[in-house]
Design a protein that fits this description.
The chain is mainly α and 188 residues long. Helix content is 81%, strand content 0%. It has eight helices and no strands. Helix 2 packs antiparallel against helix 3 and helix 2 packs across helix 6. It starts with 5 loop residues before the first helix and ends with a helix.
């Protein structure tokens, strides 16, 4: 499986163990699906459709390789996307979060030279304090939502990868290919 997110692993230390166990338990199900797909292809082969069996043998080999290396591929894709975002687009999401936290901790223009400070009356000072408090509170709520959504996305990705043998095995049976394809698109 892919490398665990530090916050996710801290909060749910046994989750990846369960994901690996579920994935291992579903490998025999995928093997049965591949075997069923080969049986159907053999029946078509005996009726004169000779290419079906060869195509199915290649498909079963690809499914076996994909099941064995889905975690590595996912990790490579995640690393590639991170590299694209950070090095090519020069946008580091973790840096954005850090800068956002710094702004919330010490908002800019606290030197007394802002336009709030040019109007000297108690109403504007109170309005400035209320606005700062409101921005701070909304910022903290936004940060909390970002943190929870990252945990949720990580959990969903790990759970989807634990189901990989089941959905990849569906590619071996012609009538179930669509379900497997939708799963792949959903994970992506």
């Amino acid at each position: 499986m892919i490398v665990a997110d530090a916050a996710f692993s801290t909060l749910f230390p046994d989750f990846l163990t369960g994901v690996k166990a579920l994935s291992s338990a579903l490998v025999p199900v995928a093997a049965v699906m591949c075997f069923a797909g080969l049986i159907f292809a053999t029946l078509r082969f005996m009726q004169g459709d000779h290419m079906t069996l060869y195509k199915k043998l290649v498909a079963v080999a690809v499914i076996a390789v994909a099941i064995g290396s889905i975690g590595d591929w996912t990790s490579m894709i995640v690393d590639g996307v991170n590299d694209l975002i950070i090095n090519t687009l020069h946008a580091d999401p973790s840096d954005v979060s850090n800068r956002f936290q710094a702004i919330l901790a010490a908002p800019a223009n606290q030197t007394g030279n802002g336009w709030w400070d040019t109007i000297f009356n108690p109403a504007t000072t109170l309005a400035d304090g209320v606005a700062s408090l409101l921005v701070w509170f909304i910022g903290k709520v936004a940060w909390l939502l970002m943190w929870w959504s990252r945990l949720f996305q990580t959990g969903i990705l790990y759970f989807a990868l634990s189901l990989a043998p089941l959905f990849l095995g569906m590619f071996a049976i012609d009538v179930m290919k669509g379900v497997g394809f939708r799963w792949v698109l959903g994970v992506i």
